[in-house]
Amino acid sequence: MKLRRIKAMAVKEILQIWRDPRSLMIALLLPFTQMFLFGYGVNLDLKHIPICTFDREGSQLSQDLFKHFEASQYFAIAHNVQSYAALKAAIDKADCSLGVVVPPDFSERLNDAHAASVQAILDASDDNSANIAFGYASAVVSGYSNDIQLSQIDRQGRTLAQIQPMVVQSRVWFNEDLESRNFIIPGLIAVIMALVGAQLTSLTISREWERGTMELLISTPVQPGEVMFGKLIPYLALSWLDAAFCLVIAAFWFGVPYRGTVIALFLTTTLFLFVVLSIGYLLSVLIRSQVGASQIALVVTMMPTVLLSGYIFPIDQMPAFIQDITYLMYSRYYVTILKSLFLKGTGIVDLSAPILFLLAYAFAVVVLAARAFHKRLA
Amino acid sequence: MFARIIPIVIKEFLQLRRDKSARFLLIVPPILQMLLFGYAATYEVYHVSTAVLDLDHSLESRELLSRFTSSTRFNVVKVAQSQREITETIDRSDATVALVVQAGFAELLRKGRSAPLQVIVDGTNSNTALIALGYVNTIAAGFAQDYAADLAQRTLGVKGMNEAHVTIEQRPWFNPDLNGQWFFVPGLIGTLTLIIIVNLTAFAIVREREVGTLEQVMVSPIRPVELIIGKTVPFFLVGLGEVALIVAVGILWFQVPFVGNPLVLLLGTSLFLLSTLALGLLISTLCSTQQQAFSTNFFVLNPFFILSGFSFPISSMPKVLQWMTYVNPLRYYLVVIRGTFLKGVGLDVLWPQLGAMAAIALVLLATSILRFRKSLE
Questions:
Q1: Which residues in chain A have their CB less than 8 angstroms from residue B126's CB?
Q2: Mapping DSSP to helix (H, G, I), strand (E, B) and coil, where does residue B170 land?
Q3: Considering only CB atoms, which chain A residues are within 8 Å of B182?
Q4: What is the C-alpha to C-alpha distance for residues B21 and A244, in angstroms, rounded to an integer?
Q5: What's the number of domains chain B is made of?
Q6: What pLDDT sits at residue B82?
């Protein structure tokens, strides 16, 4: 490998990028649009869940309960209905996702048996939202229950300590306010870079084939490895620019806390970008048509990176054989690295496992690409 | 008119029949993606990796922790001996939840004072953390209640709790086990259809333009409208077949119940396919090369996917993005497909969605036909 020839390749590639402003614009704009789209669009925090109340008793106590729901920032009372049919219609139309039903003997039971229950009717067609809404509803009801106990104890002249035998003291680490944005945005950078990076290089070789410049390239003394590095270096610079945009937007626009070191971020990002770009390059060597190459790149990157990298859906909750497949998803390692660097401030030593995986990946792809290139020429 | 349309339809089908790789791409990837993503996309929380530290070593603390050990929601991966070990386990992500019972727990309980169960949660994935915390609270509340009832029985001889309390019972409709696949699999059907059909349409037309066969067609007596109909009818039929295929995977493999009316789904699917076909057509008029079609598709399809409610609740988005979802046919189709699959609702509930899709399809088709004619001239 000669540095001079790599440089010549790189200069040629830079000229080519420069003279195709439309593609260059897409490469530079894409991270921006995607960051804002995903950053704002992907949000799992539920607030003001529309609820539908069905008060079958209409007593002071039942109205108090609904006041508790109204006071919570998680709920907004959208409807008050008087029949099950109306409740069913409201849930069918998705006007509300939670129905709270107070039974007709609510006060009576509370006074006589000291125990009463209300029903939470959940629109479980969205199971996750239903689950979270029920969690919030339980908290509201138990707060209400405590208030009733307190007033009862007040009347009997006893003290508070006797009522709750145990309390849960919970502390949340790393993402103290449990904001979904804080875990989605770091992972998002990995997803965007995987998409953009693979797109950038998946066309470089097939374009030469389609335009007939490949034969010209072969007739020069340039070696396959030199072609590869010469082509990758300009794209590495370009994608670093993209990654820097994304990282700056994440930290300064969305205000995601960054707790790691900058050098760790620089090294891991470079490694990841190299892997992504060389995979795009490998695809473009393997597949001669531009469309074929970029289509495969999209199929390989888009949905799998979103769904299988642990970006949103936790890998440890997937069935075992899907978990095995996720090891092939190179973005999964970078997602882990970014989340650790951003939220936990983990040092580079503790990240050695994902870094080693990425290194192995980079090595394997470079070897495969070099071999595939030889075959193509033969 | 039909005499000229039918040959184009036949030609498209012949082309598809002879193109082995296209047929492969229409059948195998959708099924594979359905299987893969149907399993991968889940927010359900089971077997949360948990570390426990019991510094009390009492009957009560063991009883409390055993309730977590025996729950399917928690999976105790580490029994720590010190606070430091707990910190390390959470730092290294070996456990998501740590439960700590401090010394003196049982004594506080016996004295009738509030005894604390300390919980540390790794909030990195806020969704998992939130749900896991909910389960911790449920189990802890169960323990507290049983303990109080037990105490009341032993000391006062009364059965049950003495204090008034209110509980909440859940009645999850449409999906009684809160099974995540029931939510995602119908969503996947819509998302995959969108991606496949827009790609198929946009590429088929741009390819003809790039190869130059489109000009050959134009010199024949076919009118542009006839050409468009002739080109979209096969894709429409292919799309229907495609939806039938993935719906079958959803029902037969993932066992998602279908309780609604198939005809309502068919109507919704037809309107959805019309709008996606029109979208593909529109993209094809904006692009002169397949390469451009490809990057434009990517630009367009990604927002459609994110802003559809496929997995991220629309109600949690900022207002501006919520408005943008109104022009997204996938948003409406997901309501139709989930409504017919899980809720079994009919036209009386779904007419706004169907109407919206019809309107979108109409506007898109009109625009794309106008543009398409122009791009041919």
A1: 44-45, 175, 178-180, 182-183
A2: strand
A3: 125, 127
A4: 39
A5: 2
A6: 92
Please state which of the ranges A58-67, A367-376, B74-83 shows the lowest mean pLDDT. Answer: A367-376
Query: Which residue has 């009733």 as its token pair?
Result: A148
From A120, A135, A162, give the residue that closes a domain.
A162
Q: Supply the mean pLDDT for chain B.
A: 86
**Average pLDDT over every residue of B347-367:** 92
For the segment A41-71, what is each residue's pLDDT rounded down to a tens digit?
Answer: 888 888 888 999 999 988 888 999 999 999 9
In a domain, A222, yes or no: yes
Of B33, B298, B342, which is closest to A303 when you measure between CB atoms? B33
Task: Determine the residue type at A322.
Answer: I
How confident is the model at residue B144, as a pLDDT? 85
Contact B108, B97 (CB under 8 A): no
For residue B174, being part of any structural domain is answered with no
The range of the structural domain enclosing residue A153 comes to 49-162
* Averaged pLDDT of chain A: 85
Residues A218 and A362 in one domain: yes
Residue B377 CA to residue B51 CA, distance in Å, equals: 70
Residue-level pLDDT at A165: 67
* Mean pLDDT confidence for B103-128: 86
Q: What is the pLDDT of residue A239?
A: 92
* Confidence band, pLDDT 50/70/90 cuts, at residue A24: confident
pLDDT at B353: 93
pTM over 0.90: no
Q: What pLDDT score was predicted for residue B356?
A: 95
Q: Is B27 on the interface with A (CB under 8 A)?
A: no
Looking at the fold, whether A198 and A123 belong to one and the same domain comes out as no
Same domain, B113 and B227: no
Whether residues B242 and B342 fall in one domain: yes
Q: Tell me the mean pLDDT in the region A140-158.
A: 80
Contact criterion met (CB < 8 Å) for A169 and B118: yes
Query: CA-to-CA distance for A131 and A142, rounded, in angstroms?
Result: 17
A126, B148: Cβ pair inside 8 Å?
no
Q: A291 and A248, same structural domain?
A: yes
B139 and B217 in a single domain? The answer is no
Cα(B371)–Cα(A285) distance, integer angstroms: 36
Q: Is the per-residue pLDDT at B77 higher than 80? A: yes
Report whether B374 contacts B288 (CB < 8 A): no
Structure tokens at B145: 């209640």
Residue A319 to residues A314, A325, B56, B249, B311: CA-CA distances in angstroms? Answer: 11, 10, 36, 18, 19
Residue A237 contacts residue A28 (beta carbons within 8 Å): no
* Buried-state track A136-146, b at ≥16 Cβ within 10 A, e below 16: bbbbbbbebbb
Q: CA dist A242 to A233, A362, B100, B165, Å?
A: 14, 20, 44, 56
Do A68 and A194 belong to one domain? no
A101, A296, A317: best to mutate for the B interface, most B CBs within 10 A = A317
- In chain A, % of residues over pLDDT 90: 23
Closest CA to A144 of A117, A171, A112, A108: A117
Residues B145 and B190 in one domain: no
Closest CA of chain A from B377, distance in Å: 24
